[in-house]
Amino acid sequence: MTKNNYEVLAPAGDMAALRAAVSAGADAVYLGAWEFSARAKAKNFTLEDLKEAIHYCHLRDVKIYVTVNILVADFELKRALNLVKDLYEVGVDALILQDLGLAREIRKNYPDFEIHASTQMAINNYYGAKFLKELGFSRVVLARETPLFEIEKISTLDVEIETFIHGALCVSYSGECLMSSMIGGKSGNRGECAQACRKAYDIYDFSGNKIADKKYYLSPKDLNTLEDVGKIIDAGGYSLKIEGRMKNPEYVYQVVRSYRKALENNLTLKDKEDTTQVFNRGFTKGLFNGDFGRNFTSFDRPDNRGVEIGKVVSAKKDVIVRFNEDIYPGDGLEFLGDRGNFGFKSEEFYKKDRDYKLNLNKKPLENSNINRTYSIKLYEKIDEKLKDYEFKKDIDIKVEIEVGKFPKIFAKTEDFDSIFELEEEVQEAKNAPLSKEKAEENISKLGDSIFEIRNLEIDIKGNAFMPVSSINKLRREVVENLERKILKSRLNRNEKSYVEREYKSKEKKLASRIKVFFTNLEDLKNTDLNEVDEIILRVKDLEKYKKLNLNKNVSIYLDKFYSYKELENLRNYILKNDFVKGIWANNLSEIEIFNNDDFEINADIGLNVFNSETVEFYNNEGLHSITLSPELNSRQIDEIIKNTDANLNIVSYGRIPVMTMKHCPYSVIKGCVDERDCPNCEHKNYLIRDAKSVDFEVLRHNTFTEIFNSYPILLDGYVNKIRNENINLVILADEFTDEIIDLYLSFSEDKYKKIRRKLENKYSGVTKGHINRGIISG
């Protein structure tokens, strides 16, 4: 493998981490600007920081990508575009985007600004990548779950593929997690995730019986592909992304350096050990590499576990320990007590293979392991490498100094050259003339520039004199001019015209008021369908629906994730059913594959429609209706209604899915090593209970899992306000569907209170979702 076959892409939360990434051998760095970044808690970069970072990186042949990878509200769009303008003008190489509305505006206003589709867009197959390529995206950051065969298929497109190779994992498909948002208003789609996946849960059945005790069933191990990264490149992956914008510079250096060495076939056992030591929650090779269940999750604890370096020999009276590695003052050690893990900072040197008595504040368990969570020697070693790092380009310099003429300096490095003539005549020396040695001494003082003199030629004619300040100015000007030329050449601008894609014209209809999604046919059988304007079913229920002989057209709800093969088979199957009038898309790939068929395409909540620009994008794409994000509040919805004539939907009732994942929590209990037994498993539906005794329903499908919000959304009198607007009410059916329909057809406070009491008895609570609070103010 040559360097041109791939790009090592490193994280940077600040300038120190950026310098660490570059010194370790990164080809590109991704970072967050001062706002609109999905790592809101990282330090991130000011405009002045960014100028310094671009200057530093571009002189060293390293690219910079900036994350603008959150959903943006209408009132923020102008500010977001001002940010983009600043990023464009300072020379950022590319933007990483989630919001399609913002992307649409960027493509129109800055057609030569390279844009990458964030993993928050949840692209996991060929058709999703094709959709974005046609919109002008040059790169797709694939969902972490994307299998290698799908990467191979995507590689047939003219689009760069970026994949994660190391670091923390989201258990949910990125961009499709609303759990933190619905629980506490901290949205992952705004970079403020409270990490509900890192919490412990009990598992219960629907009769209230505990199935399994509290563990971290949703907490993935950290990804580590040091031994498998070549497979990703061979499949067609180009940019190899390391997670870690919240990590320190030492972590960034160690991980980047290890992958650079792995890719150059120079990885050592010590490199692997140091990568484990610097941070790990245990390691997985990833779902795409076949890990599953316990191999994928850090179910016993959600945090850094360090490396095992000893044992508690005795804890009966005194605590006696034995280390299998030398321990140094400053090392962080971790012990296991009867109430969990606790830390201890070593203040002494302990030699390996000897017994030592330790005075600890807590008593560890006898025969338990001791882990080192922080190695002072490793950090000192890395810090020394960072301090000693130098990047130099060879430079050839020639200086011409002649009495009575302007002095000239010529410089060349790689394919760049520079000439500077100082407009000061060289004077005849009155006393000591300028020596060649003195001129060489001053010209050679390149200081902290990136240049190192390879060849230096000094040509002095006559009895010449020049002050030191003039010699220094010659050197300084030619070096700065060379740097400017290099920086200009590194500016990555490649104009692509923005063209709205053409879709088959579809008849636009007035908004139908009530749309009901039936997750099972029993609810459909028990619902009066006379007031239902659109029946929405899962594709798995189509055959059963035919047998009911209702003679009503239906729409099909599409799951959020399919492989390209599954999508092709699904399309062929749906086309055979002439009573299917529409599809509800939860992934861009589903719009792509059905775009020329005679179906009404509806954007569902999986597409995260958060502003008027995104609505207009889908409206211009020919979509029949567009579902607004359940993370919007009423003011933001009102603003969108005001700005568009598109056919809109809002979820007005039901328990929405708050996580969609490839992982199966119950596989941790059963010890499943893959998903082959999923179709026959008896544990597809159960509850997880959090520390506040709130239950969340878990439903395992054959190849993915959904977790549903604990309480159903039930909109209040806001439905009266929007009744005359071009907006539909989407109901997620259950046993109360008829009463919910009746409530929304003729809303009254008495009806609302009555149904609310019933729901509270059934579900222990009801929520208005974000209709009042939202996830941002404004």
Walk me through the structure.
This is DUF3656 domain-containing protein. Residues 370-486 form the Peptidase U32 collagenase domain. It comes from Peptoniphilus ovalis. With 778 residues, the chain is of the alpha/beta class. It has 4 domains: 3-169 and 220-286, Aldolase class I (TIM Barrel, Alpha-Beta Barrel); 307-388, Elongation Factor Tu (Ef-tu), domain 3 (Beta Barrel); 393-489, no CATH class; 514-668 and 699-763, TIM Barrel (Alpha-Beta Barrel). It contains 23 helices and 37 strands. The strands form 6 sheets. Strands 1-2-3-4-5-6-7-11 form an 8-stranded parallel beta barrel, surrounded by 6 helices. Strand 8 and strand 9 form a beta hairpin. The longest helix is centred in the middle third of the chain and has 23 residues, at 468-490. The mean pLDDT is 94.
